[in-house]
Amino acid sequence: MVKPNLPHPLPGAVGLSHLSAYDWEAADGVCGGSPHLHLVCTEAYVVTGGRGAVQTLSPDGYRDIPLEPGSVAWFTPGTVHRMVQGGDLRITVLMQNSGLPEAGDAVFTFPPEVLADPERYAQVAALRPGTGPDTAAAARRRRDLAVEGYLVLREALVAGDNGPYLEFQRAAARLVRAKVPNWRELWGAGALATAERTGAQLDALEAGEPAYLADATAHEAGPTRLGGFGMCGRRDEYNLPGVTLPYQSE
After folding, report:
1. Does 250 score more than 50 pLDDT?
2. Every domain of the chain and the residues it spans
3. Sorted alphabetically, which InterPro entries does this protein's record hold (predicted)?
């Protein structure tokens, strides 16, 4: 495997995308995205327009966090989250460890029988390329299946039974285990390399030899795919090294 080379990451080697929450109604009458968790990445929502909420499942229990312009909400690895549409909800998403979510660090809350079969999971999680009606229909079916499993987890957690939630976490970890070596390469070339670069810069400053400042420059970018179908909603992506690459599951 060729070691990834991510020479110009965003600050902190974060990932970036923009989302408009789905307005499709689910089985429980709520409009919104596909519940899922991340295994090693913290995710943040910065609300830029509209209203809505993010529903979360964690050892803290079930929470419904309101979202409005100016709100910031973030959730650590293992937290199941579901974006809920309340009206024109628009969000900028910041992802820790850029490249890892796109490489599979996200698992949908599908029912246990789907999670137990890696081939079936991959089949129902994948979407064909494009932004047309067939892809939209597949994304909605995927969302509905994730909500089906999520509602069972939420009901149990609200009733004081965290067993199904903990088993979902374990099933998610089993699904991604084989991907970890690739994630380690991406992390080493991205977030870890960024932190190590800061250490080297501090050493240079302490030594009074800030030669690295001669490399100062600026970068710019714009979205390269508009209106793609993400986990939570329609997604504008940045196809840049170390930023946001198309999801493998899509």
Report:
1. no
2. 11-204+224-232
3. RmlC-like_jellyroll (IPR014710), RmlC_Cupin_sf (IPR011051)
**With contact defined as beta carbons under 8 Å apart, do 36 and 107 qualify?**
yes
Pull the structure tokens for residue 33: 């995205």
Cβ atoms of residues 226 and 236 within 8 Å:
yes
- 143-190 pLDDT per residue, tens: 999 999 999 999 999 999 999 999 999 999 999 999 999 999 999 988
Closest to 45 measured CA to CA, from 24, 67, 63: 67
pLDDT at 241: 56
Residue 7's pLDDT is: 54
Under 8 Å between Cβ of 242 and 21: no
Give the E-state strand segments of 184-242 in sequence order: 225-229, 233-237
Encoded tokens for 132: 């047309």
The verdict on pTM exceeding 0.70 is: yes
**N residues, the chain:** 250
Bridge partners of residue 236, in order along the sequence = 18
Between 64 and 129, whose confidence is greater? 64
Report in angstroms the alpha-carbon separations of 142 from 96, 160, 170: 24, 28, 21
Encoding tokens for residue 143?
Answer: 């969302």
- Distance between CA atoms of 51 and 44, rounded to whole angstroms? 16
Alpha carbons 228 and 102: distance in angstroms, whole number: 14
Q: Which two tokens stand for residue 210?
A: 């800030």
Give the Cα separation of 105 and 40 in Å (integer): 7
At 89, list the tokens. Answer: 């909800």
CATH topology of domain 11-204+224-232: Jelly Rolls (2.60.120)
pLDDT digits (tens, 9 = 90+) for 26-36: 999 999 999 99
